[in-house]
Each structure stands twice: as structure tokens, then as C-alpha cells.
Amino acid sequence: MRKIVTGLPAWLVQRVSAVFMVLFILFLLFHFLLDPPRSYQAWHGWMREPGVSAATLVFFAALFLHTWVGVRDVAMDYVHPIALRVSALALLGFSLMAIAAWVVRILLMGHG
Amino acid sequence: MRLSIFRFNPEQDEKPYMQDYEIDLEPTDRMLLDVIMRLKVQDDTLTFRKSCREGVCGSDAMNINGRNGLACITLVSELKEPVELRPLPSFPVIRDLVVDMTQFFKQYHSIKPYVINNEPAPEKERLQSPEDREKLNGLYECILCGCCTSQCPSSWWNPDKFVGPAGLLQAYRFIIDSRDQATQERLDDLNDPYRLFRCRSIMNCTEVCPKGLAPSRAIEKMVIVYLMQGVLAFIYGHQADS
User: Fold this and answer.
1) Which of B87, B90, B234, B229 is nearest to A7 (CA)?
2) Is there a contact between B79 and B3 (Cβ–Cβ < 8 Å)?
3) Which of A98, B181, B191, B209 can bridge A6 by disulfide, Cβ–Cβ 3.0-4.6 Å?
4) Any idea of the CA torsion for B84, B86, B88, B92, to the nearest 10 degrees?
5) Cα–Cα distance between B136 and B151 in angstroms, integer?
6) Nearest of B179, B92, B188, B74 to residue B127 by alpha carbon
7) What is the C-alpha to C-alpha distance for residues B156 and B160, in angstroms, rounded to an integer?
8) Any idea where the domains of chain A sit in the sequence?
9) B5: β partners
């Protein structure tokens, strides 16, 4: 019988998200080094471009997934009492979802 | 030579302590085991395991100056004094340098370390091509000394759930064996969040293996097999849908 929870998805998420984040950070770095925005409006306009906006959204999704898998792994290693582990993971999950909602609000509505 | 050795006799001692020894080296003391065997003559309460004395049985695995290794193949000339000897980290201590390896072998047995082949046995032996046999090199040589698993943080935190590098090296040894017919069952058995995927690629296992084997490479190859299977399932799953 196939298992419902396997180990591969988390392993894959951790690596794919890491690669995307590195590429995105390098992209940001090069952009700000080679063509820095002259004003807040210029930066804001650049951020509102669909490609940049979408890549930023994916970056944050990668960041949250990476954090979830990473901290979950730490909890699996160190937090053995099941009630404590579930509480810690629930707290982490809700915190990440709240921050994610805030990020979406900033990126899609243009303000915090 | 000065040595500081972990001592603990549960029948007498409340807690472990380090005992200092000093011994004059003789020309025949080439390996660390030679020295501690002569120490044993001086102090017969000192307890450790040993058998083959040539790095084949894996009995005298211990922590030597902070690093796991076999006393019988550790050159005395390369050791920094005082030589600190401790039992294998994370394994329960039975006495002095002797540890309880029950959990280690339980994990080893859990991967079914034998060829599973339901076809009738041939008259002589199950043959394989030289190329297929070649694939077992670097895997079958494991002597199960426990140096790798004892030095693996993932095994420290989840010794009951994570198979550990020694067991996983052997799992791959049978997965890759052309004579074995239980490849998929073996892969399915290991594919959960703990048994294989607790490995965090720290690579202490490969670093300390006294036989120069690479359990981390075997684990990596198994992950690649899962990835390939996942990709194929994705492609063929979608083809079947359309």
C-alpha cells in the first residue's frame, strides 16, 4: 500500500524554493546595482510591473514554504512531546498565514 | 603516551568520569588498539570490544579525540595527546567503551538486508553481469561498526525512526542489486518523512566511515530514484488523463 505522507514533497519544496529565492535575490541585487530607481515613485512603478509583481509573490510563497518545511523539520527533530509539537507547528502555521495575507495585501493593493 | 578514557561501570559508579592513563609506547604499538590492549593488562577493569584487530569486524569502534573510528586501524603516531577515548556518541553505554547497539541493528534489520528473490533458486547461484556486480562496490564493504550512525545528528534526534546512514547504505546496496526483486517495496518502505528523509546531508557519516564508504552518496542516489519516479509518474499520469 502506498503511504499518504511521503518524504519527497518536503525535500523537493525545500530545494526548489531555495533555488528560486537565490535567483530572485540575485536578480534584485543586480537590478538595484545596475539600474537603481531614482525615486520612490520609480521603484513603486517598477514593483507594479506584472512580471516583477508576480516574481515577488512567488518569492514570498517560496519563503513561506521554505520556512514551514525548515521549522517543521527542526520541530520534528527537537520537539518530541506531540502536544507541544502540534501547538508549536500550529503557531508557526498561523503566523506564516498572517504574514502571507499581509504580503498579498501589500503586493496586490499597493499598501500595507 | 597519555590517554584520558571514559569510564563507567553501572554497578559501581553513580556517573561516568574520565580516567587518565600514562603508558610507555613500545615499538610494537602501531595502532591505538595495541596501546589499549596493553593498558588492559595494567588495569583489567577497563572494558572495550575488539575481535579481528584489522578493521574487518568493526567491534572496536569508539570516539577517538572527538571523532569516531576503529582503534585497530588508527595509527598511534597520528594521535594528539592526551588521547581522549569515549564510547560511540548517542549509543547507550553498557560499560566504559562498550555500547548497546540494539537500536542500531534494529534499524539495520528493518531494511531487510538480504536479497529478496521469489524465483526458484538455481542449482549453483544467482548470477549477475560484471557491470551489475560493479554497482555493489562501495556498498557491500560496510562492516556495521556504527561509526557513521553514531556521528549522525539526525540519528541522535530520531534513533527510533530514522534508519541511519549504515542502514540506508545497505538499503541502497539491495535496491541496486540486480538479483533483488523487492526494489519498489524497499523504496516504498523508506519513503516517509522519517526513515530516509530525516537525512539533512550533514555528511558526518561519509566523513568518519573507517572503510571510506559514502552513505550520504547512497542516500542521495535513492532520493534521485524517488525524483525520477515522481517525474515519470507525473508525465505518464498526465498522458493517461489526456
Assistant:
1) B229
2) no
3) B191
4) -170
5) 24
6) B179
7) 9
8) 8-109
9) B19, B85
* Cβ-nearest to B193 among A2, A10, A12: A10
Does the A8-109 domain belong in CATH 1.20.1300.10?
yes
Query: Which A residues, 62 through 91, put their C-beta within 8 Å of a C-beta on chain B?
Result: 73, 76-78
Q: What is the pLDDT of residue B241?
A: 61
A77 pLDDT above the threshold of 60? yes
Chain A positions touching B202 (Cβ under 8 A) are none
Q: What is the pTM of this model?
A: 0.89
Per-residue confidence at A1, pLDDT binned at 50, 70, 90? very low
Q: What was the ipTM of the complex prediction?
A: 0.78
Residue whose cell numbers read 512580471:
A51
Asked if pLDDT for residue A71 goes beyond 80, the answer is: yes
Q: Which of B113-118's residues contact partners 24+ apart within 8 Å by CB, and which partners? A: B113/B170, B113/B173, B113/B174, B114/B174, B115/B174, B115/B177, B115/B179, B115/B180, B116/B174, B116/B180, B116/B181, B116/B182, B116/B185, B117/B179, B117/B180, B117/B181, B118/B181
CA distance, residue A96 to nearest chain B CA (Å): 22
Domains of chain B, first to last: 2-99 (3.10.20.30), 102-241 (1.10.1060.10)
Q: For residue B237, give every residue at least 6 positions away whose Cβ sits within 8 Å of its Cβ, in sequence order, or none.
A: none
pLDDT tens-digit profile of B25-72?
A: 999 999 999 999 999 999 999 999 999 999 999 999 999 999 999 999
DSSP string, B175-210: HS-TT-S-HHHHHHHH-STTTTTT-----HHHHH-T
pLDDT at position B158 over 80: yes
Taking only the tens place, the pLDDT of each residue in B131-144 is 999 999 999 999 99
- By mean pLDDT, which of B158-162, B178-182, B233-237 is the weakest? B233-237
Which positions in chain B have a beta carbon within 8 angstroms of at least one beta carbon in chain A?
Answer: 153-154, 157-158, 188, 191-198, 200, 223, 226-227, 230
